[in-house]
Each structure stands twice: as structure tokens, then as C-alpha cells.
UniProtKB/TrEMBL annotation:
GO molecular function: methyltransferase activity
Gene3D superfamilies: Vaccinia Virus protein VP39
Gene Ontology terms describing biological process: methylation
Protein name in the entry: Methyltransferase domain-containing protein
Top-level division of the source organism's lineage: Bacteria
Length: 216
């Protein structure tokens, strides 16, 4: 990470502080061996993982007040993994995943920065049916519905890792694919509710998206 300009910040959840090392901005890029390029990640999309986006903040704040109990939790497309780091601070059973090859390095760095135990992590593709993740009680994610063709891949990935009784919480900033995902999850036996987040004073601009909740 020596060729990248970085930023340090702290996100507060009541009395809980989560410290983050992120990319300085979404103009950073470093793929000297072409590892990300071989995965289909272009130089334009490479930095997206390394920024704390509004949807990530909405998810983390929403989950910070959620009763996770003893649930086994999976964060999909975690990026900077703010929610995973916050849940780890609370000793929840959290596993994080992402496709980007740099995410695991930043996750480890930020876990050490917060002086917490390592978070279970697996780099995986939504089309991968051979991972060792297992099944989960609660599946979470933010800003995952980029492309129309990704909706079915995401829905199938979620269904493959959902226990028979499972909750799912996704935050979508309004990319136009939430209804398509909802229809697919209903086919898998989930109920679907779209909520507008409240108390988003921690955001600079109003949030135009929704919290998608699915229960089976």
C-alpha cells in the first residue's frame, strides 16, 4: 500500500469509536501486477472499495441499534467493512466478503487499528458456488446493486448462504434495481419491506435510498 495515499478517520456510534484507514479519495489506483485487472476490475472501478460511502454509513448506523444476539452474520461486498468492524467491536459473530483483492489487507489493518480480534474474511465472487462460508442467520450489505445483470447473481449468492430462517438487510442508494432484487428474493421465500432511514444527521447530504429488509 506504499503507492497509495491514505486517509484516517473515526466513525462514532454512541460511545463506540471505529477507526478507519481508507483510500484518500476515489482517484487512487495501484495494481502493478494486474491482479485486479485479471478479475475484471478496471482502473476506474478499482478505488471504489476503499471509500466509506453514504450507504455504508446508513447500514452501520442501522445495524448498531439492531439486536444481533448470537446470530451468525455475513457482510457481502464489505469494501471498507465499517459495519463488520463495528459488529466485531461488539463481539458479534461476523464474517466479511468482497471480490476486490485489496479488501482483506485493509480489513486486517483496520482490525489491528481498532485493537480487536481478526474478522473472518473470504475473497469470493458471487458466481462462486464452491466457497466455504456456510450458512448465516443475518446477511447484510450496502450499495451492491450496481448492474442489472448482477441482481440474479446476488440473489442466488444470498440464497446459497441463508439459513432456512434468515434475515437480510441491504442499503441501496437508489440505483433502480431494488424491486428486481425483491422479486427474486420473494421467489426464494422471503418477505420484503423497503424502509426510508431516519436520523441520518451523520450524512452530509440527504439520503435518497432505502433500507431493504427481507425475512424468511
Amino acid at each position: 500500500m506504499t503507492n497509495l495515499r491514505l486517509r484516517y478517520q473515526t466513525v462514532e456510534f454512541g460511545n463506540t469509536d471505529i477507526h478507519l484507514c481508507t483510500l484518500r479519495d476515489n482517484q487512487e489506483f495501484d495494481d502493478p501486477q494486474g491482479i485486479a485487472e485479471k478479475l475484471g476490475i478496471s482502473s476506474a472501478t478499482w478505488p471504489i472499495f476503499g471509500i466509506v460511502w453514504p450507504s455504508s454509513l446508513v447500514l452501520a448506523h442501522y445495524i448498531s441499534d439492531y439486536d444481533t444476539g448470537t446470530k451468525r452474520i455475513l457482510e457481502i461486498g464489505c469494501g471498507m467493512a465499517l459495519t463488520s468492524l463495528m459488529l466485531n467491536k461488539k463481539h458479534a459473530d461476523i464474517t466479511a466478503t468482497d471480490y476486490h483483492p485489496e479488501v482483506g489487507k485493509f480489513l486486517l489493518r483496520n482490525t489491528v487499528l481498532n485493537q480487536d480480534k481478526p474478522i473472518a474474511y473470504q475473497q469470493t465472487d458471487w458466481a462462486n458456488h464452491d466457497d466455504s462460508l456456510g450458512l448465516f442467520d443475518l446477511i447484510i450489505g450496502s450499495d451492491l446493486l450496481y448492474e442489472d445483470e448482477h441482481v440474479e447473481l446476488l440473489a442466488n449468492f444470498i440464497n446459497d448462504h441463508a439459513k432456512p430462517h434468515c434475515e437480510m438487510i441491504l442499503v441501496d442508494p437508489g440505483r433502480g434495481n431494488k424491486n428486481k432484487l425483491s422479486h427474486k428474493m420473494i421467489e426464494f421465500g422471503f418477505s420484503s419491506v423497503h424502509l426510508k432511514p431516519v436520523h441520518t444527521e451523520y450524512l452530509i447530504n440527504p439520503f435518497k435510498g432505502h433500507i431493504l429488509k427481507f425475512v424468511r
